[in-house]
Specification:
Blueprint lengths: L1 E3 L5 E3 L3 H15 L5 H11 L4 H12 L4 H6 L1 H8 L5 H14 L3 H14 L4 H13 L3 H11 L10 H14 L3 H14 L4 H13 L3 H10 L1 H4 L6 H14 L3 H12 L7 H16 L7 H9 L9 H13 L3 H14 L5 H21 L3 H11 L10 H19 L1 H8 L8
Antiparallel strand pairs: 1-2
Amino acid sequence: MSGVDRRGCNVTGATPAALEAYERALAAHQSWHEGVKELVSVALQEAPTFVMAHVLRAWGLVCSRDPRQVNAARPLLALANDLPANDRERLHLAALAAVVGDDYESAKAQLGEALRVQPRDILALQAAHALDYLTGDTARMKDRVKAVLPAWSNDLPGYHAVLAMHAFSLEECGAYPEAEQAARSALALNRDDARAHHVMAHVFEMTGRAYEGARWMYEHLGGWGVGTIVATHCWWHVSLFHLAQGRHDIALALYDRQIRARRSSEVADLIDAASLLWRVEVAGGEAGKRWVELASAWSAHVDDGFCSFNDVHAMLAFVGARRWDLARRLEHALVKAQSLATRYGETTRQVGLPACRALIAFGHGNDTVAMKLIRSFRRLVHRLGGSHAQRDVLHVALFGAIDHDRRPARWLAAAQSPSAARA
């Protein structure tokens, strides 16, 4: 069995009913909406040998900072590799195998070839875009999306998602007016594109328009806050807008009601929680016992050995909670990991270990050491991956260390509190 999807890409193993379910799953995936897994299951029930349905499910797992999810793709990949597939589908399978093998650069090369052959392969574009983001490769992110734009037009399903990816890459490269225009164009095609609303949040954040950003997010809550996979992260953005206006109370209320209300164990949610509490404290607010719960949630990831971005945010929680036992465990794990000849070993050497040591120094009031360490890797901080807005937490830490020097009393009191003494 074979067929052609709505963008003209040949697919193998699909029936008409399976292809319809796949298109619905892909549409949800493009807009960052929930329900992708369930729709893919429908497609595979209709056509168990439908290669791209297997591929979509696998990409939903491996474009993650959670090693458990990445490893869960292994049996799916093994199954798909035994199916008849065309050349483009084989490039997807090779890219998936590379990610599972921790070779992200090879994966990006395979996806780049898929896009060279078929620039309307939106799943290849989304996967490559996600990997560029995870590896901090902003220049390639922008060039990759820009290269396929001539092959797209308003009448093609998913064009709004291409525009949203283009907008995000422009924003990350500092082209804020162009990014905002592209995001608005995406929303004109699909007002429920949560990815495009997320880009708008980034544009408002990076251009210092906190009041306008909060107003936009509240006015468009239905587009990103209901049935999407990015709702928690967008509430993080809303919290940052309130924090920028000096409203620590609202930021913490949103933390309680939206970001940690469900005590989520998802790594992405833990990252947002740690980043927000750290920013609140550096800005002069009091996170209090929230740190204790968050550090406990992060403790399950001390030995993940997978992502330096995760390590830094775990350390934020451990230092914030004064859990020096967990902080030391993580530091020791990173000392071992830095010798690995892998992607993770390299990012640990360059940024992960010095950043975590800087945060420990910060927590102990060793401001000179903290500032020296942070300045030592500032030009390499993009290797952590993530967005500028997310990585800014390390600059917040630097500014906090400077503030320590100027006004040490509050920080020293925190470091010497009874909870700080726990080993």
